[in-house]
Amino acid sequence: MELRKSERKNAKIKMAIQAPSGAGKTYSSLLLAKGLTNNQFSKVAIIDTENGSADLYSHLGEYNVLPLQPPYTPENYIKAIELCEKKGMEVIIIDSISHCWDYLLEYHSSLPGNSFTNWGKITPRQNAFVQKILQSPSHIISTMRVKQDYVLNNRNGKMVPEKVGLKAVQRDSVDYEFTVVFDLDIKHFAKSSKDRTGLFSDKPEFIITAGVGKRINEWCNSG
């Protein structure tokens, strides 16, 4: 045990993007990865649980894709991350981590006995997955689906339904674990709901570009 002065060291960013379907989570993640690696997509891997959606943006560059098939256990996610690390990937996109939580909820409901005590079989597995993300030597971008709803907005005198995002499909408070959390709306505008870098706090909505990833990379290397 040793008391020392505070010191910010070079960091590997752990960020999350949460949004409803169609808001651009995968595309925005790839643009961030492009900036984080200074346009070197060969150092980017995307762990794809979204039925091949990662390949839809191959025109951006030759990034790497690792399809992850069911069951979406925390252990399989961890193996996928470790494979990417061994291949020297500087940025790992996990698209998405919501499938892991869906799996754990389904597994929990299948367990016999007391529902409360059964969480003791779930929580350690979830925690191991989150710790793997946080301790990875790579930058990691995790996407999360949000439960969807529609609201009626007045547009030119007409009430028009618009899709909005609600709660992220993951364990409550998982967003606290990340350095930066971006919320995307259906029009692809981003807003930071959490930001330890200070780059995006209290800033207006913006569109995510590779330049945003570059700014984050500069922050990571300024320790």
Give an overview of the whole structure.
By secondary structure, the protein is an alpha/beta fold. The chain is 31% helix and 28% strand. The chain contains 5 helices and 9 strands, in the order E-H-E-E-H-E-H-H-E-E-E-E-E-H. It has helices at residues 25-36, 74-86, 98-110, 115-135, 210-220, and strands spanning 14-19, 44-48, 64-67, 91-95, 139-155, 158-168, 180-184, 189-195, 206-207. Strands 1, 2, 3, 4, 5, 6, 7, 8 and 9 form a 9-stranded mixed beta sheet that branches. A hairpin with a 4-residue loop joins strand 7 and strand 8. Helix 1 crosses helix 5 (210-220). The protein starts with 13 loop residues before the first strand and ends with a helix.
Topology at a glance:
Elements: E1 14-19, H1 25-36, E2 44-48, E3 64-67, H2 74-86, E4 91-95, H3 98-110, H4 115-135, E5 139-155, E6 158-168, E7 180-184, E8 189-195, E9 206-207, H5 210-220
Parallel strand pairs: 1-5, 1-7, 2-3, 2-4, 4-5
Antiparallel strand pairs: 5-6, 7-8, 8-9
